[in-house]
Batch of 4 targets.
Target 1
Amino acid sequence: MQTPFYLIDKSRLLPNLEKIAWLRDASGVKCLLALKCFATWSVFDFMAEYMDGSTSSSLFEVRLGHEKFSGETHAYSVAYADHEIDQVLACSDKIIFNSIGQLTKFTEKSEGQIRGLRVNPGVSTSDFDLADPARPFSRLGEHDPAAIDAVAHQISGLMFHNNCENDSFERFDEMLTLIEDRFGTVIHKMDWISLGGGIYFTGEDYPLERFAARLKAFAARFGVQVYLEPGEAAITGAATLEVTVLDTMHNGKNLAIVDSSIEAHMLDLLIYREPAKILPNTGAEEWMICGKSCLAGDIFGEFRFDAPLRAGDRLSFQDAAGYTMVKKNWFNGVKMPSIAIRELDGSTRMVRDFDYNDFAAALS
């Protein structure tokens, strides 16, 4: 199969989904796939067997969830436009407003719909200001318990999304306690609560039993249905970006140029200045792997190999499912990676290829 392409491996996706299914049974929570992280709908039918639906951040995402992912469809957006709201309502089971202003603006339009409001508890686990929902002057959700309580009669649920790559149960427990203490009065008036995503509960050493017990106790205390919105927790480790070395150079370091681009194909790593992952990353040979775009900093990272790299060598960047395919772009006109799926029986099939016509169609 011609590189570059994303390879989604169902056998590596399955362990995450099985942990999600176990958590649902043990705690009573419902789990919705966060499409902002992963929206490759060719595996939605497989994922839907283990999850309860999808959640979105835009009109197009909520429509995709409605059309392609069975179960519940939750709509959320930082702000809905007038021309979007009718279709958002038509495609969703629940609509979550980011502000009291938006809730008020669309009260009449959304009459009869299950409505919720995003709440910003003022704390998060993000190590990056760019991704911190509780950063100073944050626009992500309402923060005043009294103001939220004043509109509680117009809604039946609240959404708290303040975790970010949080792999610590203790930190989750601490923040949930803060939410209980600060917003408990209004939570008691709700029917459902979403605790958002960013909780890495499918990690190898995560105390899943304690997590399930904490969620179950929270639901019982307040008499609510709890939702989680796993994104990366659902798909971590499930895909690779397959590339080929095109050329090698030496300029103080060994350089290998591949037929992909970090800016075009793994943008999140560039934004957060993090390297890609290659396994096993051992050996005597150290090489800097570079993308083929003209961006000087188009660099996947520095890795170790057993032998010198040569043109034609195949490399696999690990953990290439989350925030990759949803962020890929046509910078420099670099060919968009195809998307392939490896089935549980080991067979691999191409589900989408991109060509010049796709590039041209994205422009005008």
Target 2
Amino acid sequence: MIGLPLVNRFVTAERAVRGAAPHELLDAVRRVLVEQYAADGVELFMADYGLTVLQPVSVLPHTLEPVSVHNSAEGRAFGAQEPFTEDAPGDGLVRVHLPVSVRGDRLGVLSVVLPGGDHVRGCLTELAEIAEVLGREVVVAERDTDLYLQARRSDRLTLAAEMQWQLLPGRSCSRPEYELGAQLEPAYAIFGDNFDWSATAEHLTLYVTNGMGEGIEASLLTNLAVNALRNARRAGLPLADQAALADQAVYAQHRGQCCLSVLMFDFELATGRAWAVDAGSPQLLRLRGGSVERIELEAQLPLGMFEETDYVVQEFRAEPGDRLLFVSDGVYAVASPKGEAYGDAALARAIQATRLLPAAEVPRAILRELTGHRGQRVPDDDALVVCLDWLGQ
């Protein structure tokens, strides 16, 4: 089998993965890698919701232990988004860790034990492509099985958090014009903060929301507003009308008793020109030329506060090389044990300290810094960070 032409070998592997039942993707990958690539072991790890560990995909109870995202060989491949090879037990064997991602959305790592030397060098590119195929199939399979969603959990999600994670588009994505990364904390007990994005050939639309309240009420409010925004966007309406219709939907349901803050952007990919609606508390900071500054937009009313609010777009322009950080009040207003707010200065330092990281890594790094500022106190608000690296055309 190993002597098959390379193209045929890869095609065989790809067909095996695409033809597998949703809950049997790992079994299919393991079988074909053993047969076609002389693999001695195959495991799939999924990144947990907190982006702290990589969880093994297996039938409960798990037989493998989670591995750290921060200080493990698997975590190194996940963070760098490049294959990483280490020696494995056995004569001449190596373990190759391959990132499993879909259009920049980091899902996990595929670990394969193989003969070393020329053998692993001859098939590394194909294995990386198989890991990419597997990632796409996992995303499709999640419509029909809970296996991979269960594998992402190192703890139980609250019901509100379950609703919020199901509402999200992903945690990162990339295109030639931009790279996006986002993260929410506390990952297993989030309330109302949320982000959403959608792209066409010409535009990127981005929402960052901060819903009021706690628990299920906050999650329901955010679900209503985000789906109202999506409904208006998918109807082809411009940004101001999207805000107006979502405002009406929230007001009709809550009559002004609940409202939701949102920062909305529509970027033109060819030019970096953007239209913005600032309806509440999420803040925007920009790293340009080594300097961090807060971008002040004209504040307008949160969604649902009053009946039939009119929203006005403002213009903004992103330049190639800009890094834009969108943060909720659970970031810049969080207090230390001494009562000191995190604030602009600390946030600017965190942005500078993470300037060399890719966009997908930045939110996690900033939120880790925020945890150090907060200390042992239990967070009393969601913390949301979205990082947009503008590359331009």
Target 3
Amino acid sequence: MELVHGGDWAGYRAEFGRDALDFSANVSPLGLPVGVAAAITAALPTADRYPDPLCRELRAKLAAAEGVPAEQILCGNGAADLIFRLVLALRPRRALLPVPTFAEYAAALDTVGCTITRFMLDEANDFAVTEAFINAVTPEIDLVFLCQPNNPTGQVTPPALVEKMLRRCAACGAVLVVDECFLDFLPARNELTGKAFLHDTPNLIVLKAFTKLYAMAGVRLGYALCSNAALLDKMRAAGQPWAVSGLAQAAGVAALQETAYADAVRTLIETQRPRLAAGLRTLGLRVVDGQANYLLFNAPADFGGKLRRRGAVVRSCANYPGLDATWYRTAVRTEKENAALLKIMQEVLV
């Protein structure tokens, strides 16, 4: 079975009998925060209880951290869970996606038979979102996804364009989903977030997750912000009642206290991303300038397979609509790991 996403460490281990230098998943290179690990351990004695289906404590902590009322927060089993819940709640007839973008949007839309309109972003413009994407919203569109920054390009849509898109969606009767799962890696996250528009725009949903910044991919914890209480209620009813385990809720509460850890991750990424990009370009590879903790680059179609056999894994983007087998995405990790990856890449390209 071919998986849609990166991070398939189990598949690599089964094939090669060892672990890879894995750059295919965009999670914090600093590992699970010590405080989060301690909180999960401390919560183990409560594992015999059903978790709080309303995530009351976690939502209260999130409300304080995000500056939004707790009733405007819905927690889920990762952001992917919330994407599927939203689609099941709305059952849109036609949705608009920029291309390329995160694969889970289309996967969720396919489950309800939604017609997907794909707007091709311009490769010559490094796949940036422009006003042309806004103009693609028509009264026939029920739902629009905007990944901020976009996965896999790393491109950030300026807040002015996000606001224009939001107004256009409102005028056309469409819901706008702004996926900010990677935004917290950016120093300018507070200036770029769509949260500022939540108060008076019931057609906006902002998605966030603990997965990436806190290296909690195996814990599964995400949340949605929305001022439309009726829509959040529909999303809550669209999935199982105990989506977030008690251990995950304890982990989320602890993660929100890990401010020094989060700052350290941001500093590392801000330092290492341009260095890794420069290293890739020195090898003669085309790199898209992005602002996230990953880089999209172009290389020969057999490049990923050769890397894999030498013990390193990057994310093939061949299954992203709008890209082909010559496009890859690499995470930005520690200086030592990045140097090791570049060394293997150099050997492959000789």
Target 4
Amino acid sequence: MKKTSGRLADGREIVYYDLRDDAVRTAVDRRPMPAMEALSEIRHDPLLDEWVGVTAHRNARTYHPPADECPLCPSREGRMSEIPESDYDVAVFENRFPSFRGAPGKEESEGPSGLFRHAPGAGRCEVVSFTSDHHASFADLDEEQARLVLDVWTDRTAELSQSPGVEQVYCFENRGEEIGVTLSHPHGQIYGYPFTTPRTARMLRSLAEYGTGPGGNLFDELVAAELAARERVVIDGAHWTAFVPYAAHWPYEVHLYPKSRVPDLRALGEEARAEFPGIYLELLRRFDRIFGEQEPRTPYIAAWHQAPFLREDDPRLATREEFALHLELFTIRRAPGKLKFLAGSESGMNVFINDVPPEAAARRLREVAS
């Protein structure tokens, strides 16, 4: 993998990742663009003990452009895009409309008893374009290209973990308009959060609490239990296992774990890296066949869960190495032409109601194997 860094016209960084060592990336972004300004803020919810991003500038972001104006396609004569080169393998660049950006600043408090806490929305948000082919999907990539994307996720995790103020790195892909995607070009995103996300914080608490009892590592025992039960296992490889969790929240939801537990992508071994593309591509292709060959491609979210990067004085530091890197893949489609909406119970009380039994979902995902 060859890595080449450059700058866009407004000062944002762009990084090319190429399969060929002789690739040359010297194209210049000649668009007349002012320097980027993004004023992000985070505010603390004292009832839920969660941080919320406030980002008014994101209202101006690009929304469903026609294919010939796609900002992720390579630039061509007469039309410059976010990617100056005329072709590329994988390109990563700073989001023009980021949720989090910049160095950390002082946290301040206002109101009675200082309940209204806020701070600059520090961090970094990046766009990852998986291929220059506008009409492809991740499932259309070959294993070499999918491995390159895995290496890109790993490299960006390592880079962002060193950024001031970044506490957690989240690599993810939204696919499909039903999910809310506004650009149809195959791409994902990476968020460098200035805090540990609520979902990860809950996992760390559960992990710590379980470790005080007679059991071992909660992640290890959970994966072992699913493998022993077998009925929800979708793919069982030499170095990865994929299963529908016992208490799946979504109609079709698969968790993909490396069999050797590691806290983040940086620690993943070569054998697991080599096997990942084949297993992941197979999962994505099965997702596209869940509802039948004639149905539109299945919308999904693919989310990497990694341990946060904690300070030496953070009491959660001991739990970090006990965390298990894993990918969660799920769709909001519950049947042909029908979506799973997060309505009153899910949105109001965070209590999910799943219409598809996890055992039935796993059985269907085994039926549609390649």
